[in-house]
Amino acid sequence: SESEQETRLRVALVRGGLPVPAVQHVVVDESGFTLARVALAYPAARLALEYDGTPRLEVAGAVARPDARRARLDRLRDAELAEHGWRTLRFVAGDLDDLPRTVHRVRLVLAGLGVVPW
After folding, report:
1. What is the SS3 assignment for 22?
2. In angstroms, rounded to a whole number, what is the distance separating the alpha carbons of residues 42 and 23?
3. pLDDT in tens, 86-111
């Protein structure tokens, strides 16, 4: 993984009994055109897992929100992936504070997509 948080998520998924996700998976369309590179993926289920770890910035004592432009681009990319049958789950720091809940969430989505990870 490219970040400590992505690694924590990946290890939690595997320790929670889920299949090992692909790391830095390149998603291509039916013509072989690269649509995106996602942090973690279950390609057979067309499930992408992303950790949104944009740090908050302190500016003159105030906390600025994560880059709105980056968030908009992420939403557009998620929509494009969805047009090609992919679902994207996004995680933030709080999700890593409750790893059993996060693993359960991924397990339910995989089960709903026909991958039974029990």
Report:
1. strand
2. 9
3. 999 999 999 999 999 999 999 999 99
Output the six-digit token pair for 36: 């995106």
User: Is the torsion defined by CA of 1, 50, 99, 4 positive or negative?
Assistant: positive
| H-only helix segments in 1-118 | 4-15, 68-83, 93-97, 99-112
Per-residue DSSP letter, 44: G
Could you read off the pLDDT of 24-79 as tens digits, one per residue? Answer: 999 999 999 999 999 999 999 999 999 987 554 444 454 455 578 888 999 999 99
Dist. CA 17–CA 102, nearest whole Å: 13
